[in-house]
Amino acid sequence: MAAEFETLSYPHKTSEYTYRVPTPPRIVVPPPTLNSDALPSITLSALQSANFLNNINYTNLVTQNALIEWTYERRREAQMILPFLYLGPMTAAKDESFLRGETGHGVGETRVPGSITMVLGVRQKHSFESKLMHGALRKPRALGIVCETVDLANNQDLIQKFPQTTAMINDHLAQYFRQTGKTGKVLVVCESGNERGAGVVAAYLMGTHTDVDFIKAMQLVQAQRFCANFDDAMKRLLQGYWDILCATRQVAAVNESNHDSNGTVTVPLSGPQNASTKRGLQRDEDEDMDGIDEDDLERFGGRTFAPFTDQTL
Question: Do the beta carbons of residue 64 and residue 79 sit within 8 Å?
Fold first, then answer.
């Protein structure tokens, strides 16, 4: 029987087919473009809802080329992703000199401008790592630094926690700015500083900056912390979160446009009067089902590839 199956041929097929389980296409993160100084050129623009970030100077945000200057020892340290946001492993939360901003870290002895004001720990729930994180946060707590933690059952929980982690960072920065008139410094840590913590920072970049999508967020994180690991699952999580952010912003823009000059809300019409604003799925009764309708032309009109060719019997 095996020999019979091997001799079967399919002359009507136009290309080779694979018989594996279907998988989504991989998300490729290209390297960012370089400026005249051979450094990654990445621009940022903060959302209007985060007014306390408008005073941040984003000029020369990426000051080092992590791809060229990266050393293995730097993965044990924290790197600056934004002027007020750092990413690193749990060991960075136990480095008193780093928390106080007294020593330089990385190539060129880049100093932390001021002490860390908040440490956000991302940890696995009910695991040995959770106990390690609790011990790592003892040092910043002893120094009077605000410490917050986010517990995850698995990495899939991240997409539900992204709005919470973004709000925790912004709430602290806003409160610290109101109390002192200065910008705080937040350190995000996980066990290695390369996976869950990197995802939280990338989600924060998307949530607080108008011109940062999930690709640009990962580019910026890896441009500063080269060892950050965005696997396929994390990339899809960030892509899904970016879709949610886009939908939320579109709804907010529509609601804002529906407010007239008197401050009242204009409710959109429903029923047949507003049917033209939506793409209808109904078909006319006299439509020729044997022909090609407009939807088919829109979907398949520009395609030149045919998976099968007609075969005469």
Answer: no
Give the closest residue to 232 by CA, choosing from 155, 160, 306: 155
| Residue 203 · residue 189 · CB < 8 Å | no
The helix or strand, by DSSP H or E, that contains position 150, with its residue range, turns out to be strand 146-152
List C-alpha distances in Å: 243 to 46, 59, 159, 221: 19, 28, 11, 20
**What is the rounded distance in angstroms from the CA atom of residue 164 to the CA atom of residue 160?**
8
Of 94 and 281, the structure prediction assigns the larger pLDDT to: 94
Is residue 67 within 8 Å of residue 226, measured between CB atoms?
A: yes
Domain 51-255 class in CATH? alpha beta
Global pTM value: 0.75
- Residue count of the chain, please give it: 313
At residue 221, the pLDDT reads 94
The one-letter amino acid at 189: V
Residue 201's contacts (CB-CB under 8 Å, 6 or more residues apart) are: 81, 85, 87, 188, 221
Residue with tokens 């940062």: 212
CA-wise closest residue to 121 among 100, 96, 152 = 152
Asked which of 54-58, 143-147, 222-226, 262-266 is least confident by mean pLDDT, the reply is 262-266
What are the Cα distances from residue 217, in Å, to 25, 106, 124, 206, 242?
20, 21, 23, 6, 10
DSSP, collapsed to helix, strand or coil, labels residue 81 as: strand
Q: Give the residue carrying structure tokens 């594996």.
A: 20
Residue whose C-alpha is closest to residue 205's, from 190, 220, 187, 189:
220
At 263, is the pLDDT very low, low, confident or very high (cuts 50, 70, 90)?
low
